[in-house]
């Protein structure tokens, strides 16, 4: 069977080998007579699965010992509220708004407590990152929140040091976590919904420095309290067991690919191929400043009106799907996460060039 190249922003493609292994183990995991879906989360089998997943993730990301890894639910969207609820402790937090997702995070934080805008690039339609001269940090902020890869607008922070502040940095990495090595020590907390670059939907990953735990007010609902979740090994209630299992298979797959340094090289090559095809064409256009273009989410428009529906329909015939852009920016968007093979990007580029020859 030929696999479809799925350019969806999320839920996104998973590595074929991971799906095959999940299929092979579906009815009877490691001869225990049960599917992972049927296992008690308190038993030794699932305990081994979650412990292995955490160990592999720690190894891949180089997570220091003084950070907790939490496997939560509610998506990155829940974190927009859970972060200020846990970390504000009556103070104010700084928010950098560089696209649709950080804008949402900022709005949600304002519902919970005091949140302050450091800078926004909305007036430039989120096609760039702010310059140092535009940044106004609050030296007493409880934390600075950034979205290091804006999934809708295709803007990625490649160098965090441009946003140096004395405040603890909290980052929404939903759509580029595990795509490149990252120095976890630069952050107080990072988080992401799993369905982009980690595994199936239903799982939310939070990695948090231990000294940030225990700041939550005593009336915070138990489920939302990071310290309680950490104390219970992410099993205060029933965790999303199957999503954790598949995420664990993805972590093992990443290790087999050579880890995050090797993934980064592949991701650089994939993104370069696609951006060059866009920049060298007369039909396609990406509006983002080259220095902050995302390696994971590549939005592009067609310069000639009335071609979008045809583009999507013809792409589908080439097994290229979910290429339509977010309604906020229009046009097309190709999400090329870890699981998108280089051949998939090549197939898209071949199709785009052929489409331009016929319709451009
Ligand atoms: C998808 C996405 C979210 C929302 O994730 P959910 O898990 O659906 O809540 C938040 N931030 C970024 C950067 C995303 O890409």
Structure report:
The structure is a single chain. By secondary structure, the protein is an alpha/beta fold. It folds into two domains: 16-256, 3-Layer(aba) Sandwich (Aspartate Aminotransferase, domain 2); 259-359, Aspartate Aminotransferase, domain 1. It has helices at 16-24, 44-61, 75-87, 100-112, 226-231, 241-256, 259-279, 308-317, 342-359, and strands at residues 5-6, 67-72, 92-97, 114-120, 144-147, 149-150, 155-156, 169-172, 189-193, 204-209, 284-285, 297-302, 320-321, 332-335. It has a seven-stranded mixed sheet with strand order 2-10-9-8-5-3-4. The chain has a three-stranded antiparallel sheet with strand order 11-12-14, covered by helices on one side. Strand 6 (149-150) and strand 7 (155-156) form a beta hairpin. The two termini are 33 Å apart.
Structural features:
Aspartate Aminotransferase, domain 2, seven-stranded mixed sheet, single chain, 360 residues, alpha/beta, binds pyridoxal-5'-phosphate, 9 helices, Aspartate Aminotransferase, domain 1
Short description:
Pyridoxal 5'-phosphate binds at residues 76-77, 101, 151, 172, 195, 237-238. With 360 residues, this protein is an alpha/beta fold.
How much of the sequence lies in strands comes to 15-25%
The overall average pLDDT, rounded, is 97
What structural category arises from helix and sheet content?
alpha/beta
The CATH C-level name of the largest domain is: Alpha Beta
Bound molecules: pyridoxal-5'-phosphate
How would you describe the shape?
globular
How many domains?
A: 2
Give the CA-CA distance, first to last residue. Answer: 33 Å
Secondary-structure element order, N to C: EHHEHEHEEEEEEEHHHEEHEEH
User: Could you give the order of strands across the largest sheet?
Assistant: 2-10-9-8-5-3-4
Q: List the total number of helices.
A: 9
Q: Kindly report the CATH topology of the largest domain.
A: Aspartate Aminotransferase, domain 2
CATH superfamily of the largest domain: Type I PLP-dependent aspartate aminotransferase-like (Major domain)
CATH architecture identity of the largest domain: 3-Layer(aba) Sandwich
The counted number of beta strands is 14
Rg to the nearest angstrom? 21 Å
**Considering DSSP H and I runs of 4 or more, what fraction of the residues is helical?**
25-40%
Binding site for L-glutamate: 42
GO molecular function, one term: O-phospho-L-serine:2-oxoglutarate aminotransferase activity
Family: Belongs to the class-V pyridoxal-phosphate-dependent aminotransferase family. SerC subfamily.
Binding site for pyridoxal 5'-phosphate: 76-77, 101, 151, 172, 195, 237-238
